[in-house]
Write a structure and sequence with these properties.
The complex is a heterodimer of chains A (247) and B (284). By secondary structure, chain A is mainly alpha-helical. Chain A is built from nine helices and two strands. Chain A is flat and about 60 Å long. Chain B is α/β, with parallel strands linked by helices. In chain B, helix 5 crosses helix 6. The longest helix of chain B has 16 residues. The chains are: A mainly alpha (247), B alpha/beta (284).
Chain lengths: 247, 284
């Protein structure tokens, strides 16, 4: 078993934590509260020894989205309290607050789930969902979809090579590559559709729909902390709701 | 031997085609026998396998006529899941035989047993045995998607053998294998037969078919041209007209016969080459 205090947690404990962050930033409207989650998540990522890949992924993906959302809100959110202007755009206080509020929530929720997928193996998460009652078909769909992506990438390369031998230009300027898009994509989609049925037959050849209870070699254990933490999350959420409603 | 599979006047056409792929097929497969289905491309071999395994009509709809019985019971009375326990199917294309949900060969081979609800300790024991039998122990921790065609074919075979079905339907198991790998796979199939399994094989390599099969079913344009013991079929005039390749040893012997060499019998296996020629005044 993994000795890392974060990685060794049950997948559902980690999942509930991401949900907990999501709910908390919806309940508490303060953007500082939402932004404060980010350093907490970095600390957790560092404890799980995934800080580098976690931050790098956020910089590559989330930051661009946050910048666009922030600028859109700042310049286009209707407001009267103008605090500055640039060319035809007016920067309003309402827009600034809306931008900060929205981006802080996106950052908190987005990074919580990005971290979740960094510290959980998908097969563990699916197994955990199966343990709480997800049907095997659902588990199969999630797992096979994730496994099949690299396989499709390989197939796409093969199709690309095949089209090259037929004289389709696949390298060069953007226009040349755009022209090659359909001759490559069409066989890829068609072969993927065809392989769906084949895969269903494959599953049946492995007794997927055999009657009776299935065995699982892959086991997940719940430690006391995995039983306590979800209740801690629930307790905090109730506290936040009471604070919002009554105080 | 009693019949384990019986087809009576079976015809089938796929939903998107007008042509009947199988036409009035009647045949019987005896329990514990090794039967090979031979025929040219498009003769209906794979379709017949799909019917024997129950994928037609459960997956491929289309029109299916006639009766198919498994162990005396009409195939339609079985659920697809129940058939999985009785009939194992090794596909022609090993690239689609990987479940796609397991990330090691060990787990991939164990997957069928997990679905059957076999006890955990039995799963470990049986998977170890099969990995060793199919000689893929060294691949146990590898991702099935990272294997070569030949390796996948062995994993596919292991994944089915481990489930210990009574009947094995094997569609061109050697299509991705080199000669040594092919020989090894056929030795495994022979071992399965010795363990009392019924083997139904589709294979183009006639040397292997003649070497291992008890019986042949010859298909031509969706019809059964002939069914009978391997030697009887290969020696028949009907097989001669079916335009299917003979085993190499038989081809050579027939050519020699044409040139006047006398034979005691028509050899169908390599081991018969030394005994088939007539001892004619010391010119053996």
């Amino acid at each position: 078993m993994n000795q890392n205090p974060i990685l060794s947690l049950h997948p559902l404990t980690k999942f509930y934590f991401a949900i907990f962050i999501t709910v908390s930033v919806i309940i508490v409207p303060n953007y500082l509260f939402a932004y404060a989650w980010f350093p907490v998540l970095i600390v957790i990522a560092a404890m799980a020894k995934v800080a580098k890949s976690f931050i790098s992924f956020i910089l590559k993906t989330l930051i661009i989205l946050l910048a666009i959302v922030f600028l859109m809100q700042v310049f286009f959110y209707p407001g009267e309290d103008v605090i500055g202007s640039w060319w035809i755009f007016e920067l309003t206080n309402e827009g600034l607050l809306q931008g900060l509020s929205l981006t802080s929530r996106i950052l908190a929720i987005g990074s919580a789930f990005i971290l979740f997928f960094r510290i959980v193996e998908i097969k563990d998460f699916v197994k955990a969902l199966e343990d709480i009652g997800m049907p095997p078909t659902g588990a199969y769909i999630v797992l096979s979809t994730l496994q099949i992506i690299p396989e499709m990438r390989r197939q796409s390369n093969t199709i690309m090579e095949a089209q090259k031998t037929r004289g389709v230009e696949t390298e060069g300027s953007l226009i040349v590559r755009a022209k090659a898009f359909f001759p490559t994509l069409t066989p890829l989609i068609l072969s993927s559709i065809a392989s769906t049925e084949e895969r269903a037959i494959t599953l049946e050849s492995r007794a997927f729909s055999a009657p009776g209870k299935k065995t699982s070699l892959h086991k997940l254990t719940k430690r006391p902390i995995d039983r306590v933490l979800p209740w801690v999350y629930v307790g905090i959420i109730i506290g936040l709701i009471i604070w919002r409603v009554f105080l | 031997m009693t019949a384990i599979i019986q087809l009576d006047n079976v015809s089938y056409r796929y939903p998107i085609g007008d042509e009947w792929i199988l036409k009035h097929v009647s045949l019987e497969i005896k329990k514990g026998s090794f039967v090979s289905i031979v025929g040219n491309n498009g003769s209906g071999k794979t379709t017949l396998c799909n019917i024997l395994r129950g994928f037609i009509p459960h997956f491929h709809k289309g029109d299916l006529e006639g009766t198919i019985k498994l162990g005396g019971t009409d195939m339609s009375e079985y659920q697809l899941g129940q058939l999985g326990e009785k009939i194992g199917f090794v596909f022609q294309n090993p690239f689609i035989q990987i479940s796609g949900v397991k990330d090691t060969v060990f787990d991939e081979v164990a997957y069928g047993l997990e679905n059957l609800g076999v006890a955990e300790e039995d799963i470990y024991k049986r998977v170890e045995e099969v990995l060793s039998l199919v000689k893929i122990q060294h691949l146990r921790e590898k991702n099935p998607f990272e294997l070569s065609g030949g390796q996948r074919q062995r994993v596919a075979l292991a994944s089915i053998i481990v489930m210990d079905p009574d009947i094995l339907v094997i569609d061109e198991p050697s299509s991705q294998l080199d000669p040594i790998g092919t020989e090894h796979v056929f030795e495994i199939i022979r071992l399965m037969k010795e363990r009392g399994k019924t083997i139904i094989l589709v294979e183009h390599k006639m040397d292997l078919v003649a070497e291992y099969s008890d019986e042949l079913i010859v298909l031509d344009k969706g019809e059964v041209l002939m069914q009978g013991p391997t030697r009887e079929v290969l020696e028949s005039e009907i097989f001669n007209t079916a335009n299917i390749q003979y085993p190499h040893v038989t081809e050579v012997a027939l050519e020699l016969q044409k040139q006047g060499v006398k034979l005691n019998f028509l050899p169908i296996r390599d081991s018969e080459i030394t005994t088939c020629f007539k001892n004619d005044g010391g010119n053996e």
